[in-house]
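Appendix C. Worked example: Glutathione S-transferase domain protein
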Amino acid sequence: MIKLYYSRPSAYARPVWLTLLEKQLPFELISVNLGGEQFEPEFLSLNPFSHVPVLFDDDFRVIESLAILDYLEAKYPSPSLLPTDAQALARVRMVQTVTFNELLPAIFGLLVGKENSNEKSLEFEYAQLRAINTLNFFEGLLGNLCYFAGEQLTMAEIVAGTLIHRMPDLGITLTNYPSLNDWSERLLTRPTWREIQLSPEEWSNFKRFMRVIPKIWRHRRHQRINALSQR
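Step 2, the predicted output written as structure tokens:
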């Protein structure tokens, strides 16, 4: 039996949740309160790095989103979410990596900056530029394709699609990216995407959470440093 330790708003856990749904696999969701539960000994025994997602397939444990996605694709290859064509596979991997390394940090910067200040700080402006640069790259990469790999929905959509439709909420309209806009709207019609969609209340709570989470993390990590230094 597959078990997924997750949090509904988590940008790292949602692609795994979505993959399980797209592959129509039976699984159990176990919610982790990221307000501090991830630092408790019980969860640290599952992931010593204190973050979601964590996946158990029977007694086999996998941490880190991209590793989990690769595992699920290899273990449960049908329906396939990775192309075999070399160029298409490269496009998918680029989207996955750029989403986690560029777009996601930019979104965190936009969330925190927008919530904490009425003025655009240097960090907030950098986050905007970083997000726009990423969207420009994705727009060119997608071009006139239906999906990043062509006609096949893949892990590129799984990873990026849960984030890009939120950009207008952060002050970056998708009308400047017509291919991405159509692509995003196409994804949102899928039953799997609708199932994991955050309600307006959940999205609002998540933005408030992002404002205070750095303080929580600093406090909890200070506690962990003390605990580790005493071992």
